[in-house]
Each structure stands twice: as structure tokens, then as C-alpha cells.
Write a structure and sequence with these properties.
The complex is a heterodimer of chains A (about 550) and B (about 240).
Chain A lengths: L1 H14 L2 H10 L1 H38 L5 H27 L4 H4 L6 H34 L4 H13 L2 H18 L5 H24 L6 H10 L3 H7 L4 H10 L2 H34 L13 H7 L6 H15 L1 H24 L2 H12 L2 H18 L14 H6 L4 H17 L1 H11 L5 H28 L8 H5 L3 H27 L3 H33 L3
Helix pairs in contact in A: 1-6, 2-3, 3-6, 4-6, 4-8, 4-11, 4-12, 6-7, 6-13, 7-12, 8-9, 8-13, 9-16, 12-13, 15-16, 15-20, 16-21, 18-20, 18-22, 20-22, 22-24, 22-25, 24-25
Chain B lengths: L1 E10 L4 E11 L4 E5 L6 H9 L6 E6 L2 E2 L4 H7 E4 L11 H11 L4 H14 L15 H13 L5 E5 L7 H16 L3 E5 L3 H7 L2 E6 L2 E6 L1 H7 L6 H8 L2
Parallel strand pairs in B: 3-8, 3-9, 6-7, 7-8
Antiparallel strand pairs in B: 1-2, 1-4, 4-5, 9-10
Helix pairs in contact in B: 3-5
Classes of the chains: A mainly alpha (about 550), B alpha/beta (about 240).
């Protein structure tokens, strides 16, 4: 136990950069305040969004209080937090448990596998507090202040917050441990792991749909009952994750019942932790040892060698190909960049197969919403997919310590950037089949309309791609010690989304003005295309301008 | 070939001078050995020579081109092998070499001929189809070396190239360096293996605390020290 504690402290110091922060505070104030400034900037940028969320929770609290179910707010905060921890936890567990650079130092030490894995689990939990804080703390505050909660509520709220990520992350960890140990000996293990993770997510989403779905044909009666029945909303919502029900009751019950519910919640979490530790003790090394080994390929004869030699049409193409190969061979990158392309269609298709209220809503959408909005929404969806896929916003960071190669090769920085634009566009283009699927299943479009969607979607992707590359090039995060950090714990990805959001707000505004003033569909299309191209081109020119100096000045 | 003038680089706001007013020239066709204790400034100097670090002041000129003002012209004629072979793990050996061939614009026919020779020289032919992830430290070092040799650079810059190489590969590399220089090209490398430097180099520079404290042929270095028996004694005396 002592070892886990000590190892966790060391891991936290490394992972959260605590030692580096303390050193900078003493020796390099510029760096220290730079880091502090970035944290402040993140909080400031996200501030308005969370203010809106807070107000929304307050409104929800008012409404649900009138229905006699005020604890719904707590349940919502807990379920959102649980989902985020689970969804983002899957790749983080994979990366931190199995692909951290320090594993080659830790494994030979006289430590139990459960100890090493336990300390890594604790580090991920620490990160998850940062993820859930903006969602769970406001819910706790709104319920506490709204219900005039007493001292005990606030005391119990602290451990409830601290325990919340344990079970969802535990489930993710158990699955990853099982997946890694089962696939470790396979030659195609990376592919199998990606397939396994996507299938698991789909299973969870399907389960969620059927557990929390509303029975077809009795929608109104069901909703009425849910609203009127004591704790109806709460039970409906926590059906997918029952421990949340224990947490809500630990916070909302009165007197001794509060303590009892909290004790149940605590015991559930202890059981979860014990399960992760015991399974980890058995499976961690089984999934890890030998994981970096690669099957022996065939010896190349002179003829084969000549055949295997290929030349790219340009250095930019060589760079784009290198990026694609890296994406395809790094499960963490592949899952983060592409899983959404698999999950979205399933989310769309499940309700359609099972029928129900959503089908009616889609029919209404199809008939009531003007065609222009349908086309522009789909094009907007494509553009947003380009913004949210971290292909561009982590492009330089992903090179990590190998960035020196890009710095010494005789390829102009501008050309290297072009390779990255090309690669990012290829990733964006993957949403085209998705749009075609949507147009087949939900919104039947004419071929011309589909063409307009794809054309506008791709053109409007340019500003997102370029602004993302610009942000990552300005301050690439190259010193990561596991690939997850390059993509998910990279602040540039968040900044790129925020900056891209501002750019898209501008483009939307221009399109909206064109719609109001000119009233024709064609005018809106042209204005959106023109503004996207203009903004994209300006940002691109700026990117190209700063690239040579950045390639020269960045120190790996 | 190499002309370094008043080169300086410091860290911690000038508190630590990694390279301090360094002046150095290397002629065409020379093998130049760059020696110094740990932390003397060898890697910092080399990184500034290849454009991986920006000097605080001074200049590095290679074949008449400044690395600061005309980096591309320099990069086309040099090759660099770093001390730790951080290389694209998720590419196979041949994919990495193809990538290097593409960026240095080596035609396919030339590539085929050179790779056949170099892969055999470093016994990598069996491994070139595997992911670099599966390579040992020495094999990674060798694949980086092959990638760097592919375009026959005018100037070959290596930081501790022998570390991790097996004796045969190490010997092959030394022979390659000699042949490279016989063809009129230049090699600049840092090393801690004094015996290699003594036997291989036309001239040797010794850097200590960021300053070049000695530079010349073995004979010239011997004149600078009281104990002239071998390079090890000279090195120990000068860097005391």
C-alpha cells in the first residue's frame, strides 16, 4: 500500500508537471507565469459556457422542484460526469497503462503489477477530477443552495465528488485490461484493439438506449408517470449507472439515511477499486509484457527491396503519407480521430431501427425545416467534424521527440505544413460517407444538394484545419510521455476548438445575414463559401508566414 | 566546409553558458573529432550546426551558406545522426528510408543501389520490413545512419555515433567515414571513445565548459600537453 502511495505521488509530480512547476517558480518565472497564464486563459475562455450551464441547471432545478423531483439536477451532473469519465477514460487507460515511456523503468523494479497499475489508475483519476469538476460541482452547488442543505450535505459532497470517477474508470480499466491481455499475442493486435474498443462503446450506447428508452406507442403515458411518480425522473436517469442513484441519495436524503446511502456508495466504490486491483494484479503484465514486440517480417531479397522502394510525388505527399501511417498504427490516435465516425451512424441508426418518438421527430424535421437549413446543417456538421477530430490540432505535437527529423530534413517548412493540411483534409473527407448515409437514412437529398453539402462542408473545413494547425505550431507539446497526452491532454486541441468556434460563429453570422437580406439559397451558399475561403486563406497565409521561424525555433 | 564564428548559447537567462564564443573551422575532406567531458557543450554546438538550436550570437556557415539565413541550402548537403535514435517507431525500416529518400530527393534507381549496399553493410536487410518499434537501440542507430547516408551528404554530422553499435557495425561505420572523406566529403563527429578519435580523425577539437580549449592534429595536440603518451592523457590533462 505504501508503495502505491509513493509511486502515485511520483507519477502525479511527473504527469501534472508539479516538480517542473515548482522549479520554474524558483528559477524561471517567465515559464511559470506562461503556464499559469494558459490555465487562466482556459478558465476564462470556458467561463461563459459554464455560466450558461450553471444558469441552465438553476432553471432545471426550479422546474424539477415544482415536480417534486429536485434531485434530478444532481443525477444529471453525476450521469454526465460518469459518461465523460468512461468515454475519455477508455483511451486514457489504454495509453497510460500500456504505452507510457516510464514502464520500461517501472516494470523491472521490485513492485507488484497491481501497484504499478494502481498508481497509474490514481493518476488518471486525478485528471478525471479536472474533467468532471465543471459539470459536477455546479450541480452540487445548485442543489445545495436551492434546497438550503445543511452542513452534512457539504461534508458528504466532497467524498462523493472524489469517488465519482472511480467506478466508470474502473469499468473502462477492466475492459482494457481484458482486451489487452486477450489480444497481446495476436499479430494483428492493434487492429483487434481498435475493433474491440469501438464494439464495446457501441454496446454501451445500445444498452443505454434500451435501458433509458421510452416504450413505443405509450410515450405520453410513460412520460406522465415518470414526472408524477416519486423519484421517477431520477430512477429513469440512473438506470444506466445505478451507483449514481446511491450518490444522489447520499446527498439528498435526510438524517441517518444520508449516512447509510453514503456508506453504500463508499462500499460500492471500494468494491470497484478492489476489483480493478485484483484483475490488474492478474492481467496487467499479461497485456503489457511483449506488447512492444513485433512479429518478424520476411527477409528482403534484392528484388523485393527494389519493389518495396517507392517514391512520393512530392515531399508534402511524403509527409501526409507518414502522418496517415502513424495514425493507422497508433490505436490511441486512430480511436480518438475516427471513433466518432463509427459511433455517430450507430447513434443515428439504433433509434431508427427500433422506431419510437425519434422517428416522428425526424419526419417532422424533414417536412418542417426549410431545405436550405437541412443542407447547411449537414455541411456545418462536416465542418464541425473537421474541427473536433484532433487530426490538425495535435499534428505537430504528435511528432513529439521525433520533431528533430522535420527540423533537419531539407524540406521547406511551408511544404511540410502543406503535407499536414493535406493529411487533415483526408481525415475530414472521411465524414463524406457519413453525410451520404445521413442523406440516405434521415434526410433524403437530391444529388445536387448532396454535392452542395460536400462542397461547402469541405470548403468550410479549411478555416478549422488551418486555425488548428496554427495553434499547434505556435506552441507544440512535444515532451509527452504517452501518446494520449499528445492528443487528449493537449491544451492546443481545446484552444483550436475554441478558436474554430469563433471562426464558425463568424461564418454562421455571414450566412444568416445573407439569408435575412438576400433571401435566396444560392446567395447563402455563395456567402458561406466566400467567407470560409477568405478566412481560411488569410489564416493559411499567416500559417505559412510563421512556419519557417517556428520550425527553426522550436526546441525538442 | 564548416566555419563557426563566435558561437554562443546560454541557458537559464545567461546563467549557464553551454557554448561560449566558439570559433572553429573544418576543411573539406577532413574527419574532425569533437571531444569534451559530459556537459561540455558538444551536443549544443552540434544542434546549432544543424539548425536544431538557435544560437544566442555568432554564426555557423556550411559550404558558404549560413544555417540561420539559408537553412535549406545547408540541410540539402548535410546529414545528421543524433545521440539518441528517436525515430518513427510506427514506420517499418523501409518506409522510413523511403521517406528519407523522398525528402532528400534521391531517385529510385540510386536509392535501390545505395540501400542494397548500406543495408548489407549494417546487416539490416533482414529487419528492414519490420516496424522500427521492434528494433534494438543499436538497430535504431543503424537505421538512422542508413537514412542519413542515403543521399551521400557533403557533410556528415554525427553525435556519439558509436554508442550502441556492435563491433562490426562500428568498424563498418569507421570505414565508411574514411571512404566518405577520401571522396572529398567531410565528417564531423563527437565521441567519448578517445581511441577512435585518435586513430580516425585528421583533426581533433576539445571543448570544455563551452570553450574550445584545444584544436589540431594529434601531433599539434601533443605539443599542448606535458604527458604526450596518448590522447587519453592529453584529454585528461587539458580538461582537468
Amino acid at each position: 500500500m505504501m508503495n502505491i502511495y509513493k509511486l502515485t505521488l511520483i507519477q502525479l509530480k511527473i504527469s501534472l508537471g508539479l516538480s517542473a512547476m515548482r522549479w520554474n517558480m524558483k528559477h524561471d518565472l517567465k515559464k511559470f507565469f506562461g503556464a499559469a497564464g494558459i490555465i487562466a486563459l482556459v478558465l476564462f475562455s470556458l467561463g461563459p459556457i459554464f455560466f450558461l450551464y450553471f444558469r441552465m441547471l438553476q432553471g432545471t432545478y426550479q422546474v424539477t422542484s415544482e415536480l417534486g423531483q429536485p434531485e434530478f439536477v444532481l443525477a444529471a451532473g453525476l450521469i454526465i460526469s460518469t459518461f465523460l469519465v468512461f468515454f475519455f477514460g477508455l483511451t486514457m487507460v489504454l495509453s497510460v497503462f500500456f504505452f507510457s515511456r516510464d514502464l520500461s523503468i517501472l516494470v523491472p523494479l521490485p513492485l507488484e503489477p497491481g501497484t504499478i497499475m494502481g498508481s497509474k489508475f490514481a493518476v488518471i483519476i486525478a485528471y478525471k477530477y479536472l474533467t468532471i469538476a465543471p459539470f459536477l460541482i455546479p450541480a452540487i452547488l445548485v442543489f445545495g443552495s436551492g434546497s438550503g442543505a445543511g452542513f452534512l450535505y457539504w461534508v458528504i459532497a466532497v467524498p462523493v465528488f472524489l469517488l465519482t470517477p472511480i467506478i466508470p474508470l474502473g469499468v473502462a480499466a477492466l475492459f482494457i485490461l481484458l482486451l489487452m491481455s486477450l489480444t497481446n499475442l495476436s499479430r494483428r493486435r492493434d487492429t483487434l484493439r481498435i475493433i474491440g474498443m469501438v464494439l464495446f462503446l457501441l454496446l454501451v450506447l445500445t444498452l443505454n438506449y434500451f435501458l433509458t428508452g421510452i416504450p413505443e406507442g405509450e410515450e405520453m403515458a410513460y412520460i406522465e408517470e415518470m414526472l408524477q411518480k416519486n423519484e421517477g425522473l431520477l430512477i429513469q436517469m440512473t438506470r444506466i449507472f445505478p451507483p449514481a442513484l446511491l450518490a444522489v441519495r447520499a446527498l439528498s436524503a435526510a438524517g441517518a439515511a444520508k449516512i447509510a446511502w453514503f456508506a453504500y456508495f463508499l462500499l460500492t466504490n471500494i468494491a470497484g477499486l478492489a476489483a480493478v486491483y485484483l484483475v490488474g494484479q492478474k492481467l496487467f503484465y499479461r497485456g503489457l509484457i511483449g506488447g512492444a514486440e513485433v512479429g518478424k517480417g520476411k527477409t528482403f531479397s534484392k528484388e523485393t527491396l527494389t519493389k518495396k522502394l517507392s517514391t512520393s510525388s512530392s515531399p508534402a505527399m511524403a509527409i501526409a503519407l507518414r502522418e496517415i501511417k502513424y495514425l493507422l498504427r497508433t490505436p490511441v490516435y486512430l480511436f480518438n480521430s475516427l471513433s466518432v465516425l463509427v459511433i455517430v451512424p450507430v447513434i443515428l441508426v439504433i433509434p431508427l431501427i427500433s422506431g419510437g418518438a425519434l422517428t416522428n421527430s425526424i419526419d417532422m424535421l424533414r417536412d418542417e425545416i426549410p431545405r436550405l437549413f437541412q443542407v447547411m446543417s449537414l455541411a456545418g456538421f462536416m465542418a464541425l467534424m473537421s474541427l473536433f477530430a484532433p487530426a490538425a490540432s495535435s499534428s505537430f505535437s504528435r511528432e513529439g521527440r521525433q520533431f528533430w527529423v522535420s527540423q533537419i530534413i531539407p524540406v521547406r517548412a511551408e511544404e511540410q505544413v502543406n503535407g499536414k493540411v493535406l493529411y487533415s483534409y483526408l481525415i475530414s473527407a472521411l465524414s463524406i460517407p457519413l453525410v451520404i448515409l445521413i442523406s440516405l437514412v434521415i434526410l433524403p437529398l437530391e444529388p445536387v444538394e448532396l454535392f452542395i453539402v460536400v462542397a461547402i462542408g469541405l470548403i468550410a473545413s479549411l478555416p478549422a484545419i488551418v486555425v488548428s494547425l496554427l495553434i499547434d505550431l505556435a506552441r507544440p507539446y512535444l515532451s509527452w510521455d504517452n501518446p494520449q497526452k499528445a492528443i487528449k491532454q493537449n491544451i492546443n486541441v481545446l484552444f483550436a476548438m475554441l478558436a474554430g468556434g469563433v471562426v464558425y460563429a463568424l461564418i454562421f453570422l455571414a450566412g444568416w445575414l445573407a439569408y435575412q437580406r438576400l433571401g435566396s439559397d444560392l446567395a447563402v451558399y455563395l456567402v458561406v463559401v466566400a467567407v470560409s475561403l477568405a478566412v481560411g486563406a488569410l489564416l493559411y497565409l499567416f500559417l505559412i508566414r510563421i512556419a519557417p521561424n517556428r520550425y527553426r525555433d522550436i526546441e525538442v | 566546409m564548416i566555419d563557426i564564428k563566435n558561437l554562443s548559447k546560454s541557458y537559464n537567462k545567461g546563467k549557464v553558458k553551454a557554448v561560449d564564443d566558439l570559433n572553429l573551422s573544418v576543411k573539406n575532406g577532413e574527419i574532425f573529432g569533437f571531444l569534451g567531458p559530459n556537459g561540455a557543450g558538444k551536443t549544443t554546438t552540434i544542434k546549432m550546426m544543424v539548425g536544431l538550436l538557435k544560437p544566442d550570437s555568432g554564426s555557423v556557415t556550411i559550404n558558404g551558406h549560413s544555417i540561420t539565413n539559408n537553412p535549406l541550402a545547408v540541410k540539402r548537403i548535410i546529414s545528421f545522426v543524433p545521440d539518441s535514435p528517436e525515430v518513427y517507431e510506427k514506420l517499418t525500416g523501409i518506409e522510413y528510408l523511403n521517406f528519407m529518400g523522398d525528402v532528400y530527393a534521391v531517385p529510385k534507381e540510386v536509392r535501390s543501389e545505395r540501400l542494397t549496399y548500406l543495408l548489407d553493410l549494417f546487416s539490416l536487410r533482414d529487419a528492414v520490413g519490420d516496424l522500427i518499434q521492434s528494433y534494438s537501440h543499436g538497430m535504431r542507430q543503424k537505421i538512422v545512419l542508413v537514412g542519413a547516408m542515403l543521399h551521400k551528404p557533403d557533410l556528415f554530422i554525427l553525435d556519439e555515433p558509436m554508442v550502441g553499435l556492435d563491433p562490426r557495425s562500428s568498424n563498418n561505420l569507421k570505414n565508411y567515414m574514411r571512404d566518405h572523406c577520401k571522396a572529398g566529403k567531410t565528417v564531423f563527429f563527437s565521441t567519448h571513445i578517445l581511441e577512435v578519435a585518435e586513430k580516425l580523425c585528421d583533426r581533433i577539437g576539445i571543448i570544455h565548459q563551452g570553450r574550445l580549449i584545444a584544436c589540431g592534429t594529434m601531433e599539434e595536440l601533443k605539443q599542448m600537453a606535458a604527458n604526450r603518451e596518448n590522447l587519453e592523457n592529453i584529454f585528461l590533462e587539458l580538461t582537468e
